[in-house]
């Protein structure tokens, strides 16, 4: 169904492109990205998926509000292949000088469009460009594990059994980073806290999630967090058992009025707006955004923010979180060494802050995580 | 106790499959195989979720789920019984119809909150060591399935009504000479089977996972169809098969929550391997137990 919609959308766009034969001016003297009347956003999925794509879409709507004189073009269900390049080219022909390609796999078509249109700035969400960065291109992403670390602190203070639970989908570095940050945050305030992990081998299989949550709860786990695309099942099971919930993706406190602690959620608006500000001012080339730009507490504008606190979180805990925020803003990362893995090997030497590339290719659990990474 | 957890998880997770398998037993006993069972589960899951979200009453949701499952099965019944279409092909088409419809209408309910069925530990019984948590600490739909399986067995094998159903699956011509309409019996059995599959779907969305998501049955309807053969078209044996499958699903998280590391992907495949193994071991023996007229479906001769 989704694919059909996407194919139809592409076909319509293709016909639109075919009939419009005037080529965009490629010899503009002005800085790339300036002088446009529109801003384009492409999404790999539907804009109402209650997750990644919805968050990016909401960011684009925040841009529309911040720049009422610029029209925001959006395209959903754009596949991660040459079709994406055609959709972006169509947006350029309509007058867009700034394009946001919001999925990891949109990088290569986005690079292609940037090369063909030097007057257009293309920004790509989540991926990395190895080697020289084109003057009109940049990648950007936030550091989700920072608010997860802060949530870990709240979880570490809330637990009575010292057993925290984490339901995750697949053992990829993004997930492992979150679990590690959660455990490190919890252990920073409660050295006895351990994180028990269960994977579901699926981004959204509610029945498996229900069983995962039950098995953790029956082991005496009293705080559960998760890295899943659909989050309601685990939260309801946790709340029904009288345990605490740490959310992910969105503020789901209405689902857990008693047990909600905090969580991590998306807020792309401020970062998008700031980047556009730099581009329309003609200052993009050479700016921090004309690179593999990663934001966190240190740089500000992290699109991953901490969700509001639940009713049981006391002032002392909030103070601990504020202290940690200040520390991360100064040191730069929750993974400030020493970071030790489950086997006791030091993975990050004391006093070292690993760079984003290291963090984005992590393949181990830190000490205190109970469970093994599934062998592939 | 890990085995208490796994068995309790087996009952909890197997219940949706059990409802569907009981429904399919009914349909196949009357001589119609319905591969669209998965579709009936999906429509049942969505209808139950939507009505529960609207009314706040999960029982109203189950009623809606049962009706939705029955309605989809009626499409199958009409196509194969009144139009003479191939049962296997039609079943698959009906499945995709259910999957497509629920994907389209379900989008609005992803992330909606409902007040689901609550577990109701049976006083006294739930305190029995081992058996208590395994059998008597569940939601009302689980308890209802405890009654349904023996009730269906009694109806099929001890009542006059069951004799008529089974005759429709064995020798419809004989049934006709006694003045019954095999067509009507088969219609009722297929629609009744879809109704039960719909309740199975409702259990998934309003009692077990407490959420609606596209294609959330994830193949459970097909497992149910396989179980019917595995259980030799016998309602009581279907109970064991459904719980075995549920327990295989519950094993992986139960092990992980205790920090045991096994090959995750092998564990994920285990429920299906168990089903295949059971079919291989029991397969030849079971074919003799198949309703005679049902066998014709597999011999690609049109049913009468």
From TrEMBL, chain A:
Keywords assigned by UniProt, alphabetized: Signal
Coiled-coil regions, chain positions: none
Pfam families reported for this sequence: Bmp
Signal peptide (residue range): 1-18
Domain ABC transporter substrate-binding protein PnrA-like: 37-300
InterPro entries per record: ABC-Purine-Binding, Peripla_BP_I, PnrA-like
PROSITE patterns on file: PROKAR_LIPOPROTEIN (PS51257)
Identification of the protein by name: BMP family ABC transporter substrate-binding protein
Organism: Phytohabitans maris
Lineage of the species this protein comes from: Bacteria, Bacillati, Actinomycetota, Actinomycetes, Micromonosporales
Automatic annotation (TrEMBL), chain B:
Location (main, coarse): membrane
Location(s) in or outside the cell: Cell membrane
Topology in the lipid bilayer: Multi-pass membrane protein
Transmembrane helix keyword on record: yes
Bilayer-spanning residue ranges: 59-81, 88-110, 140-157, 184-204, 216-233, 240-259, 265-282
A Pfam entry, by short name: BPD_transp_2
Keywords associated with the record: Cell membrane, Membrane, Transmembrane, Transmembrane helix
Protein name: ABC transporter permease
Species: Phytohabitans maris
Lineage: Bacteria, Bacillati, Actinomycetota, Actinomycetes, Micromonosporales
């Amino acid at each position: 169904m989704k694919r059909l919609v996407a194919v139809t959308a592409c076909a319509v766009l293709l016909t639109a492109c075919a009939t419009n034969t005037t080529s965009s001016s490629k010899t503009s003297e002005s800085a790339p990205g300036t002088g446009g009347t529109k801003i384009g956003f492409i999404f790999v999925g539907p804009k109402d998926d209650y997750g990644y794509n919805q968050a990016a879409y909401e960011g684009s709507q925040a841009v529309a509000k911040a720049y009422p004189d610029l029209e925001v073009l959006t395209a959903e269900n754009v596949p991660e292949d040459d079709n994406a390049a055609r959709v972006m080219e169509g947006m350029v022909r309509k007058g867009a000088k700034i394009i946001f390609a919001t999925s990891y796999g949109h990088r290569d078509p986005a690079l292609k469009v940037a090369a063909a249109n030097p007057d257009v700035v293309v920004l790509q969400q989540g991926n990395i460009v190895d080697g020289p960065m084109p003057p009109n291109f940049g990648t950007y992403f936030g550091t989700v594990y920072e608010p997860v670390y802060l949530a870990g602190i709240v979880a570490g203070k809330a637990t009575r059994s010292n057993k925290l639970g984490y339901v995750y989908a697949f053992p990829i570095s993004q997930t492992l980073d979150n679990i590690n940050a959660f455990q490190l945050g919890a252990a920073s305030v409660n050295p006895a806290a351990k994180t028990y992990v269960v994977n579901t081998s699926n981004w959204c299989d509610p029945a498996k999630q229900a069983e995962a949550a039950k098995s953790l709860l029956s082991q005496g786990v009293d705080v559960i967090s998760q890295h899943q695309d659909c989050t309601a099942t685990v939260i309801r099971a946790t709340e029904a058992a009288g345990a605490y919930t740490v959310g992910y993706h969105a503020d789901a406190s209405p689902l857990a009025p008693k047990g909600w602690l905090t969580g991590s959620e998306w807020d792309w608006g401020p970062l998008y707006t700031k980047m556009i500000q730099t581009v329309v001012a003609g200052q993009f080339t050479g700016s921090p955004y004309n690179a593999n730009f990663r934001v966190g507490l240190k740089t500000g504008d992290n699109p991953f923010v901490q969700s509001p606190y639940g009713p049981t979180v006391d002032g002392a805990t909030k103070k601990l979180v504020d202290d940690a925020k200040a520390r991360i803003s100064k040191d730069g990362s929750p993974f400030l060494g020493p970071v030790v893995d489950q086997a006791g090997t030091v993975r990050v030497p004391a006093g070292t802050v690993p760079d984003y590339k290291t963090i984005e290719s992590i393949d181990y659990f830190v000490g205190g995580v109970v469970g093994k990474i599934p062998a592939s | 106790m890990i085995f208490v957890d796994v068995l309790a998880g087996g009952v909890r997770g197997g219940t949706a499959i059990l409802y569907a398998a009981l429904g399919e037993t009914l349909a196949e006993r009357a001589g119609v195989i319905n591969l669209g069972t998965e579709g009936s589960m999906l429509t049942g899951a969505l209808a139950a979720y939507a009505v529960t979200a609207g009314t706040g009453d999960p029982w109203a949701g189950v009623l809606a789920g049962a009706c939705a499952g029955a309605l989809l099965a009626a499409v199958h019944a009409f196509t194969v019984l009144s139009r003479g279409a191939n049962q296997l092909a039609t079943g698959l088409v009906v499945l995709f119809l259910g999957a497509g419809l629920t994907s389209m209408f379900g989008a609005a309910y992803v992330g909606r909150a409902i007040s689901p069925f609550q577990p109701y530990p049976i006083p006294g019984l739930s305190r029995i060591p081992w058996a208590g948590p395994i059998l008597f600490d569940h939601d009302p739909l689980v308890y209802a399935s405890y009654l349904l399986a023996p009730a269906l067995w009694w109806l099929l094998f001890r009542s006059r009504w069951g004799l008529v159903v089974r005759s429709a699956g064995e020798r419809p011509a004989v049934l006709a000479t006694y003045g019954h309409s095999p067509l009507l019996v088969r219609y009722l059995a297929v629609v009744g089977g879809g109704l039960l599959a719909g309740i199975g779907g409702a259990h998934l969305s309003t009692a077990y996972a407490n959420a609606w998501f596209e294609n959330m049955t994830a193949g459970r309807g097909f497992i149910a169809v396989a179980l019917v053969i595995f259980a030799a078209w016998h309602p009581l044996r279907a109970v064991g098969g459904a719980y075995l499958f549920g327990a295989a699903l519950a094993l992986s998280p139960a092990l992980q929550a205790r920090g045991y590391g096994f090959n995750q992907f092998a564990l994920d495949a285990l429920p299906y391997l168990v089903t295949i193994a059971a079919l291989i071991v029991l397969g030849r023996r079971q074919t003799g137990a198949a309703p005679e007229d049902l066998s014709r479906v597999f011999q690609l001769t049109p049913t009468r």
